[in-house]
Specification:
The structure holds two protein chains of two kinds. Chain A is an alpha/beta fold. Chain A is built from 24 helices and 20 strands. Helices cover 29% and strands 38% of the residues of chain B. The chains are: A alpha/beta, B alpha+beta.
């Protein structure tokens, strides 16, 4: 080690320091212990202060986009705010994808960006970009600190905005002269801003209405999303209690996976475009839908004018702008999911008598018939590794290890959602809203930093993974034992699937030519590389991957043209879900309105 | 009817800080909502508050969405939909320039007289009128005088009687995590 570093602590009565010192002190007071970043000219004063202290651990990524995804992985696996530090210009613009991802998936992030000195702003200075202008639509809020006296308050406020209500990313743009000049320090209590306050407690009368509907419904369903996970572990416990006491079935969105245990008999599996038959049919035929912390995304609803046509709908969400956005609801409840679930349980207990479960007998009988369809079945093979089989075996061989799983975007993501069952929240990190290829590996790095002793697996695809493969260096530098499970079909599989289904099998630019030898690639970074090409090798490779300490990349060479089923094609309703056909022949044409959908 | 398109006058009280107008406009342009008219000015120097008056149109769900999204912006203190909340007064100011020969200008003066427009500039061959009124009154005047150039300020609006747009009571913030 080098010479001992002085710590950040200063006498309590010191109220002015340099701007850079104020930044770090504010981070410490906000409970930050890790930041993900990349240095550059405009933020050198902050890096200089980082060098002199040991309270905050800095993780050096290899690309600023990865810094944001790593911070997202950290935030979503811990429930804390993820912090990013990048320089001006390209440092800031490289964060845009990550920020948009965090905005869509409600991840609390504070991103500190360097900026040219205030007197040079607008002059097209070296590494100048209009960061607040560029990031305005992809953040919950952003700030340009132009006066030293605002600095500490703005940073505290940024944390409060990031984590309050529906969480999201916040950018604080820091001109270099503000970082180098002196600035007064104020504590977190100085950052109370009225307009940040959010309604958390739900309206009691509407809760009572919702519970009465639930008590009478003959075909109810809970439709639950990531909002319940964001609310906290307590909300997930209360959800289990309410679902069990009510006896109603439940489905989860992609973002909600883990909020309810996958092996519970009341759980129908994931809803949506690649959700299970029983979940989608139940959403279509229900007479009461209780949506909690979910936002009626188009991947969930399918064709809107035929979405769940016979149901009354209750929507609980902390974000008033998410209610009645895509689907008009009958009972709108604004508030925190945990608070609302507690209130619903209370109202359930206050019902005159426990509602008779037999009213739902026919509903459960119907669900049993839908389940019997076994919509996640796939044709096994003795010659090639089926991707579904690979993920199912990975799940089976890691049971009891309570892994954290991150994914990228595409077919492997859907198969992971379908076959990697989860039993607790904050174990499933995926890019849902934005669909960001390249999310999974840096997110795994962030999760592993937060949980050094846990098993963190990045289930990825060949096309997604190469988008951020430079982060191998980061994982090696910090000795992060992330296990990369690469479902390699040499295609952008989901693009290829859509081309085969909807574009006459013209596979334009979806073949991943000239892929690297992933085993050698892993070895080049100093990591372990493994490969399975035959079903007989699969289990051994998974076992070796798990048994090998440190960073491992397992290249699982799978069936090149397997498709994801079930599938609700664009422009179709839930009850038009397509199941795995006996052969993948030509597909029925999709309606013109359906073709324009993404 | 919930799906009927309607014109709404929405007033927003915001912190007078850089970028606040860009946030409001970005919200409309980014989501494809209409802005028919928009005015902004500081209205409370002591508390550094500005008022934005927006005229927009949409069905009930779109309007509710616009209001909820406006309310989510951090510098926004309060949002008031005067079209829903009740009786209010709307006014707009226009400067209207007419060019022409003597006969045409005399005719414009005559129209201005009965429509209560004020002559604010008279140059050789041109007149400028100032007219304050509802947007419909301004439209009618402009239709009649056939001006060569028009400058309109946009709608300002205020609720009648007890309908008041205030910053709202301070609420306790989030409990710190």
């Amino acid at each position: 080690m080098t010479a001992p570093r002085e710590t950040l602590s200063q006498p309590a009565d010191v109220v002015t320091a340099t701007g850079a010192q104020v930044v770090l002190r504010a981070l410490v007071d906000q409970g930050v212990d890790v930041i993900f970043g990349y240095p550059g000219g405009a933020v050198l004063p902050i890096y200089d202060e980082l060098f002199k202290q040991d309270r905050i651990f800095h993780v050096l990524v290899r690309h600023e986009q990865a810094a944001v995804h790593a911070a997202e992985g950290y935030a979503r696996s811990t429930g804390k705010v993820g912090v990013v530090l990048v320089t001006s210009g390209p440092g800031a613009t490289n964060t845009v994808t990550g920020l948009t991802d965090a905005l869509m998936d409600s991840v609390p992030i504070v991103c500190l960006t360097g900026q040219v000195p205030t007197h040079m702003i607008g002059n097209d200075a070296f590494q100048e970009a209009d960061t607040v202008g560029i990031t305005r639509p992809c953040t919950k809020h952003n700030y340009l600190v132009s006066r030293p006296e605002d600095l500490a308050r703005v940073i505290h406020e940024a944390f409060s905005v990031a984590r309050s209500g529906r969480p999201g990313p916040v950018v604080v743009d820091l001109p270099k002269n503000i970082l180098m000049g002196s600035a007064p320090y104020v504590g977190p209590e100085a950052a109370r801003r009225r307009s940040v306050a959010v309604r958390r407690r739900p309206d009691r009368e509407r809760i009572r209405q919702a519970v009465e509907l639930l008590a009478r419904a003959e075909r109810p369903i809970f439709y639950v999303g990531g909002g319940v996970i964001n609310s906290g572990d307590r909300a997930c416990e209360l959800l289990r209690e309410l679902v069990r006491r009510s006896g109603a079935p439940i489905t989860l969105t992609l973002m909600g996976l883990g909020a309810y245990p996958a092996d519970d008999p009341q759980y129908l599996g994931m809803v949506g475009m690649h959700g299970t038959y029983e979940a989608n049919m139940a959403m279509h035929d229900c007479d009461l839908m209780i949506a909690i912390g979910a936002r009626f995304d188009d991947r969930v609803t399918g064709r809107l004018d035929r979405f769940s046509p016979h149901s009354r709908k209750v929507h609980i969400d902390i974000d008033p702008s998410s209610i009645n956005k895509n689907v008009p609801v009958d009972v709108a409840i604004v508030g925190d999911a945990g608070e609302a679930l507690a209130a619903m349980l209370e109202a359930w207990s206050a019902l005159g008598e426990e509602p008779r479960r037999s009213r739902m007998d026919a509903w459960w009988e119907q669900i049993r018939r839908w389940r019997a369809v076994d919509s996640l079945r796939f044709r096994p093979s003795r010659d090639v590794i089926k991707p579904q089989h690979a993920i199912r075996r990975l799940w089976e061989l890691t049971r009891g290890m309570d892994p954290i799983v991150t994914t990228d975007v595409g077919q492997h993501q859907m198969w992971a959602a379908q076959y990697f069952h989860l039993f607790a929240p904050r174990r499933w990190l995926t890019s849902g809203g934005l669909g960001t290829m390249g999310y999974g590996f840096p997110a795994a790095i962030g999760a592993q930093i937060a949980h050094p002793d846990r098993l963190v697996i990045n289930i990825s695809g060949d096309a997604s993974w190469v988008m951020n493969m430079q982060e191998m260096s980061t994982a090696m530098q910090y000795r992060l034992p992330v296990k990369i499970f690469l479902v390699n079909n040499e295609y952008m599989g989901m693009v290829r699937q859509w081309q085969d289904f909807f574009h006459g099998s013209r596979r334009a630019e979806s073949y991943m030519a000239a892929l690297p030898d992933f085993v050698k690639l892993a070895e080049a970074f100093g990591a372990k590389g493994l490969r399975a090409t035959h079903p007989d090798e699969l289990d051994d490779v998974i076992r070796e991957m798990l048994a090998t300490p440190g960073l491992v990349l397992a290249d699982i060479v799978v069936d090149k043209v397997e498709n994801v089923y079930p599938m609700i094609p664009g422009g179709a309703a839930h009850n038009e879900i397509k199941l795995c056909p006996e052969d993948d022949g030509p597909h029925e044409p999709v309606s013109e309105e359906g073709m324009v959908l993404v | 009817m919930p799906n009927e398109e309607r014109r709404h006058t929405i007033c927003v009280l915001v912190d007078n800080e850089p970028g606040v107008l860009a946030r409001v406009i970005g919200l409309f342009s980014g989501r494809g909502y209409n802005i028919e008219s928009l005015t902004v000015s500081e209205v409370d120097r002591a508390r550094s508050l500005s008022r934005i008056n927006i005229v927009t149109s949409g069905n009930r769900y779109v309007i509710d969405q616009i209001k909820a999204l406006l309310d989510k912006l951090v510098p926004v203190h309060s949002v008031q939909d005067l079209t829903v909340e009740g009786p209010h007064v709307e006014r707009e100011l226009a400067l209207v320039k007419v060019l022409g020969d003597r006969e045409r200008l005399v005719q414009a003066l005559r129209i201005a007289d009965f429509m209560h427009a004020r002559l604010v500039d008279s140059s050789p061959g041109s007149l400028i009128f100032e007219l304050t009124g509802t947007p419909e009154e301004l439209d009618a005047f402009i239709d009649l005088v056939q001006p060569v150039e028009v400058s309109r300020a946009g709608v300002v609006a205020i609720g009648r009687g007890g309908i008041i747009l205030e910053p709202g009571e301070p609420e306790p913030g989030e409990p710190e995590a």
